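Posting here for the record, re: S-adenosylmethionine.
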Amino acid sequence: MQPAARYGAAIGVLDAWLDGMPAEQALTRWARGARYAGSKDRAAVRDHVYDVLRQKGVCEALGGADGRGLVLGLLRAQGGDVDAVFSGVGHAPAPLTEAEQAAAVPASDPALNVPEWTRPLLVARAGDTLPELLESFAHRAPLWLRVNLRRTTREAAARALEADGMATRAHGEVETALEVTEGARRLRQSLAYTTGLVEPQDLSVQRAIAQVDWPHDGTILDFCAGGGGKALAIADRTGAEVFAHDALPQRMADLEPRAERAGVRIKQLAGADLAARSPFDVVVTDVPCSGSGTWRRDPEAKWRLTPQALEDLVKTQAEILDKASALTAVGGRIVYMTCSLFEAENEAQVAGFLARHPEWKVGVTTVDTPLTASDGFFSAELIHDPA
Ligand SMILES: C[S@@+](CC[C@H](N)C(=O)[O-])C[C@H]1O[C@@H](n2cnc3c(N)ncnc32)[C@H](O)[C@@H]1O
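Prediction output follows.
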């Protein structure tokens, strides 16, 4: 496909998204109908769509509110060649109308990268760095890998990735972390990944997990295990028995093969079995949240989030924390985690828990934003201290 035709395809996908279809579904539907599109074309169309979603407000202001306007806005935001794309040649979008050409183009405002109602919530997190944080949402997050130290060393993992055409950079402090600087799209096919030497995991999560003193024996429950990313990282660092639970057990469907690949054991527990296996020495609650820390990787989520949805999430988080406390051993710990930048889901949630449960105190807390890691992430250790 010609580069301009790829933008044309992105316009169609964005129109479907604006009609309510999830972006991945709209991309898949387009790809099924575009047998002529090769893997590079599909990747480029996907990049254009996600580039728009990362800065939809900016694209709207610079171009317009429909798919065509958004792509026009994207080109203007990126300083692209508008006339070369909107040429009308072949499958390229039609040339700009007189009205489109005559419309005033305002200066790009990074505040438009996030929904208006979330800005005050981000001010509370970012303070003076708010402009940089807002700007960061327009850009792709780098890919970080966690080296599975049970399987290999970080140096050997980097060499294996290099053999598969990927370049990496080791993080200075987090001993498991490798940033992919070249060839990220090759990861899923690489031997290093398929043989369990590395797992994609954000730097912020790796840092938070590295800062907790995991027990050498006893039991750890990952209460909101989902795909098991946190459980796998924790299992790599502990001799304790690791259990995984999720209110939606189907979310843990990949956990067994992932654990096998990583060479760790994680036992899945249904809701009915939790009480019998409790108490646990540590209960990890990686709760459902706004995901505002991961908006660079999942930009669709920020446009879907509503104040009501956030309020509901905060209630669910408090309920999960209360349930977790009932499953924790006397003197045990909860590790509360979110990938949110909002105080209501983080510090305020912890303060609410401590107010409801005076026999608990807070331990190690880590806070990252996309400016200090690649995602925003919050983690707080809550210690049962009945004395
Ligand atoms: C942020 S995701 C977890 C991601 C996962 N820990 C990982 O690292 O891939 C939150 C998970 O909590 C689960 N969940 C929601 N409500 C829950 C509840 N009341 N009890 C347990 N799990 C719950 C969701 O099904 C979802 O899989």
